[in-house]
Specification:
single chain, mainly alpha
Length: about 60
Amino acid sequence: MTLGNMLVQLPFLYLMPKLWGVNGIWVAYPLSNIAIGIVVGIMMWRDIRKLDRTVLQPTTA
């Protein structure tokens, strides 16, 4: 488990039991992984777009 995962997981572990009781504890972990996956996906998409722009631009000498 990484520090980033823990920072995302802690709010879920705090909020979900208040909303759903004991079941919220079990739901918190998968929801935090989904949230991290979405953030990582967005970051990768932005980096790939930036990489495509730099590769496609012609170099001038």
